[in-house]
Amino acid sequence: MLKIFKSKKDKLPKSEIITCEPQVTKEPRTKCGKPLVLDNTRWERRLHKELMSLIKEPPPGVTVDTDSIGQNLSEWKINIAGFEGTLYEGENFQLLFKFNNKYPFDSPEVTFIGNNIPVHPHVYSNGHICLSILTEDWSPALSVQSVCLSIASMLSSCREKKRPPDNTLYVKTCNKNPKKTKWWYHDDSV
Amino acid sequence: MSLTPKSVDFNEIWPNLRSTAEAVITLGNVNRSDWSTRFSDVYTLCVAHPEPYADRLYNETKQFLENHVQNMLATRVAPGPCSTSSVNGEPDLLQRYYDAWTEYSQGVKYLDNLYSYLNQQHIKKQKISDAEVVYGNLSSDTMEQMEIGELGLDIWHIYMIKNLSDDLVKHILEDIKADRCGSPEITPNRVKVINGVVHSFVQVRGYKRTGQLKLYQELVEFPLVMASADYYDNEAAKLLKTCTVSQYMEEVIKILEEETKRAKKFLHATSMWRLRKQCEDRFVNRRLDFIYSECKDMVSQEKRKDLRNMYKILKPIADNLKSQLIHTFLDHIKNEGLETISTLSGENIHIQFVENMLKVHQKFHELIADVFENDSLFLSALDKACASIINRRPGDRQPCRSAEYVAKYCDTLLKKSKTTEAEIDQKLTNNITIFKYIEDKDVYQKFYSRLLAKRLIHEQSQSMDAEEAMINRLKQACGYEFTNKLHRMFTDISLSVDLNNKFNNHLKQENIDLGINLSIKVLQAGAWPLGPTQVVIPFAVPQEFEKSIRMFEAFYHKSFNGRKLTWLHHMCHGELKLGYLKKTYIVTMQTYQMAMLLLFESCDSLTCKDIQSTLQLNSETFQKHLQSLLESKLLNASSESLEGNTKIELNFDYSNKRTKFKITSAMQKETQQEQIEHTISAVDEDRKLYLQAAIVRIMKSRKVLKHNALIQEILSQSRVSFTPSISMIKKCIESLIDKQYIERTPNSGDEYSYVA
Amino acid sequence: MKLTIKSWTGVATWRWIANDENCGICRMSFESTCPECSLPGDDCPLVWGVCSHCFHMHCIVKWLNLQTMNKQCPMCRQSWKFNIH
Predict the structure, then answer these.
(1) Helix, strand or coil, per DSSP, at residue C84
(2) What is the ipTM of this complex?
(3) For the structural domain made of A39-182, what CATH number should be given?
(4) B and C: number of Cβ contacts within 8 A
(5) Which CATH number does C19-85 carry?
(6) DSSP β-ladder status, C3-16 and B573-578
(7) What does pTM read for this prediction?
(8) CB neighbourhood size of B413 (10 A)
(9) How is domain B673-754 classified at the architecture level of CATH?
(10) Which of A44, A103, B28, B273 suits a disulfide with A99, CB 3.0-4.6 Å?
(11) Do B700 and A15 touch (CB under 8 A)?
(12) Which CATH fold would you assign to the domain B10-212?
């Protein structure tokens, strides 16, 4: 169950918290550039911030299913509504975001879930999405919000509702994790 | 001689062997050839053919020894007077026993050598191994054969000691009692006799693998300890009737020493501590009430001799029994400490506070070394007392000001003064002693960093080395996080020195003469405790040095990409040369004051309104600084109140004995009290944030935690820098519940769970 | 000259000039530090790319170290080059 801060001011200013932390922190402090050991609790702040802004100022058609968010923010469910004037008008979809502890340096794992998987040339019937920013074109400057918007725009620009040509084979043979798939991003226009 | 086994006649050899054995055991004369012959006789008998005579030899020898000892008892030891006093000159029982034992024990050793072959080849082979003793179920009294030396001792025990022990022990106890009374009969020789008799009970069992001391303990130690206990009890009772506590303790120490010596003199070494324990029990443990009856006075009057004695006699007893002395001592330190700091007043209160506390600490530290042998129990009492004095709040509502005092004390030392560097160094080191007791280390840090900032910005430090050394001391005591910002501030200053040099070189290279001796300090915004004053006050920089500032900024931006400078004019100051008076003066003043005076370069009189609008100062800053210039008499005002039309004029009649001086800065008018309150409330804010962060951290890892467990964890985490009040922790928990970071678990009122 | 300035001792603080308030990688304010530091300023500096985007140095270095092939600016995907001046 997720609760929201009463106001932005209420949140603990980050720099203050850190400055007065006792010297005996258990996690080893690594500066960037040294062997990558992400200190989860510190970097989790970013996820927290993202969640707050998504709840407070959601982009049109996007809502966070706050009940779905677990203790450590590692899985979110986000509802997306098909935009008016597109092939998906009136439909509702649900996305599952999974974050590992390297986020935002590693992309989240994003799939459609639920009964209604959009029929779209880049969306497989198991919910996997062929979208380059989710794998090789990921950048830490991207966010949950920008990913949602990309997916929404991918849906909006669709001209014909159909599954990808290799859907049957892919769904049979693919790894559960879409990030394990070596995508071949054949069509940038859709 | 031949080593081949041969047929021999036992009856032929034994009588000779027996007579030699007799001579050996009585320490008679045995010539070498006899010895050698008998030695090989033993061998011959043991290897005799067709049947060896080893068992027979053993039995005959045993018989011989039994007879010998019985004979000794009957003819030499038993007959005669029991005690010396009865008949003059004749040896008494102890002496006779001792003489007999001395001879016999030595004789048996020789005899054992004579029977080497029997011992080595015949008996040792039959002996059960150590492992069998431990693991087998053989009783130790199996009819095994013993080596001849052992056999001799065993026989002595059976035929001599068993018969005489009651009498012997009775005499031993009597003699020890006589020794306690200082009887002249206990001569050194007599001591030797008693000691010999006592030790014979140990030696006679010396060959045993275990329980060598059992016989001795049963016969001598136990009865003696019992008898001594009664004796000690009586003595203690007697002393109580006649002595003061002080005398009693001295007597007890004397008795303890004597009894230890006595134990060494007469008894086996292992008995010493048993006797001593008994002695301590009767004289100390059972008389604690009496010993403690004057404890309070002795402590409060610091009667070192008595305290030393008390410690000496209490030292060996259980720690909990000493607690009364320790508590009394602790209270005494507390009282003295509180007294020395409670009456402080005046401007130098911080110096008095630290120095008085140090005196108290040093005094008792020395006393503990001198009187209580640096016992850790007493050292920790000193620590507790000091911590309690230093962290005591003068009243419920009043904060404890020690952290502030100690920080100010450092400031006083580190500021320019006539004190030598070595002395400062020593004092700062001492100061750490007091610092370590402070619970509110965060308050200290706040004060310290503000004062350090002032010293560094206003160049008031006596020595940068001393500053650095002090920061390092704090780092040692509290860790890197504690001094992080202090280090940073320190570094900023040395970086600024470099920067100024580079800037000056740059000016030289470019052939620029600013006409002003410029010196700039560039501080890293986050590291300095500049407080709300960081808010920039609007100010039109006078053109006289605006160019210089711009030159510097340009230079800085070229050196450091992506940084912007904000000038803290209220902290800047300069020297202004006044050339319009009879004498030339050089006056140090703040930038705002300087800017105001500079306006009079082209005229002699201005209205308040003109000044304020030219400089674009807000009225508070304007009033404050103009006021300070009026007070310095450099300017005159046409009226008391500084209205817009009030005329301000240069005072051409100004004169001063000194040609170089400084105008009091306007900032100092902020009252000290305000500053202190401000610092304390800043600390409070920090603490709340710290506690909230700690609670979130703890709850995040624990998920669910009971109230008390949470409080404990918070306390242990925050100990490094401060001890939060429970009420503050509770407030923080409440506010986190409000913010829905955590919530009360529904089924239990005193349990919280983490909300993701 | 009635009044001449002999010397002036100035005190200034410095901050980063960044075109954004927050670091695009960690989303922390540039006025404070990256998530792994405690003291803002020199200890946790900002760096600029030639593309003019600005990050906490620790954040961008961490990102660049994770990129095996082409090291790009997270904001504009231009190949990343530090803007030394």
Answers:
(1) coil
(2) 0.80
(3) 3.10.110.10
(4) 148
(5) 3.30.40.10
(6) antiparallel
(7) 0.70
(8) 21
(9) Orthogonal Bundle (1.10)
(10) A103
(11) no
(12) 5 helical Cullin repeat like (1.20.1310)
